[in-house]
Amino acid sequence: MSQQGAALQSYNNELVKCINDLCGKRDELHKQILQEEEEKQKLQNDIRILTERLAKVNESLSKKMASRNEFDKTIAETESAYMKILESSQTLLNVLKRESQTLREKTVPGQRAVQS
Q: From the record, what ranges are coiled-coil (predicted)?
């Protein structure tokens, strides 16, 4: 019977050792879980902060793009008006030259024509 007792004691010791090994592995796994949960929390916070920053940048971009579009519109309208002024100036100059020539041709003989 003492052999059976010794075998039972050996099994018991081995069983206790296996349980202790499993508890050690469980504790190590629990430690890793806690570390990853902490990292997850930090990442979620970073995502929240970045999402808020992205929203602010998008809003700023939207406003700046709208302003740029207004600048583009104003510049285009101003350039168009300036071109019309140039065309009108050219037309006025041509009319003035033609009228000046006509007046020179109608100048009374003996009078000097006005030089332009």
A: 19-60
